[in-house]
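Per reviewer request, we include the raw input and output of the structure prediction for the construct analysed in the revised manuscript.
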Amino acid sequence: MKAMVYYGESDIRFEERAKPEILEPTDAIIRMTKTTICGTDLGIWKGKNPEIATAAKAKTGSFNGRILGHEGVGIVEEVGTAVTNFKKGDKVIVSCVSRCGTCENCQKQLYAHCRNGGGWILGYMIDGTQAEYVRTPFANNSLYLLPPELNEDVAVLLSDALPTAHEIGVQYGDVQPGDTVAIVGAGPVGMGCLLTAQLYSPSEIIMVDVDDNRLAMAKELGATHIVNSAKEDAVERILAITEGRGVDCAMEAVGLEATWDICQQVVKEGGNLANVGVHGKPVSFSLEKLWIKNLTITTGLVNANTTGMLLKTCCSGKLPMEKMATHHFKFNELEKAYDVFKHAADEKAMKVIIDL
């Protein structure tokens, strides 16, 4: 089968790989029908996660590449003997988080830190979804039946982007009715934060980015204010909008020091700073200014414990996620899709969907 394989910083290859096999009774093999590229995949490509290779070498003594991807939908091809919730032929959404369901952390719904080899492993610690077939561990707990009425492009976003935004941005940020919210980063996860925040009726949502095209989409999707931080001082603008006080909740949805810094400067007393972005380098944490403000600062990796709820909400039509799927490619165009997503601002790309 063909797959996109990571070998090291700046080295990914679209090449032939062996079709995966059932390794554990709880596994399923999925024939992928749609997948996508996440900002995390770009980060891996750029060298943000060298632990992929070092972990493999520590376990087996060598590293022969890792198939990327942790999102997508497909059709069940084969199931292990312990899989009872799914059968061959079922259309499913593949969750980015695999969970055993029985360990101490899974019992706390802390599925991101499953102690039996789950968590975020697809496209990271094991081969992922940017392939014709993928092995999904703990299939009973880590797949979702795809409702026939749900747009499949939207279903792909339910793998990761939407639950990450909702759980790590909106829920951890404790968005309440009437709140003022600033979201720094208008990528797919930032847009997910924008959409799911509206389920909680905040009074104002300020979207910050450097891409006018993405900001225009944010306005269309419900942002009350947009700020291009390349053209104006985002901190000054947010403080002006909020009469100098700052916001109840600031969400960092990029993973850079500059975007983190905006967030830590605009949270008002008693507010919440929810870090959603994946950081690969240290940032300056102005604790000498923040300690007195009675803030709640949160970080996190998605647990996907709200995926089922979000799936129902998408089916109801209350989340216009389909607008985020801006580009479509055939599977044999995956390299081109990476190039487009890497240059998202120039290509006016939000989420690229790869059809197999």
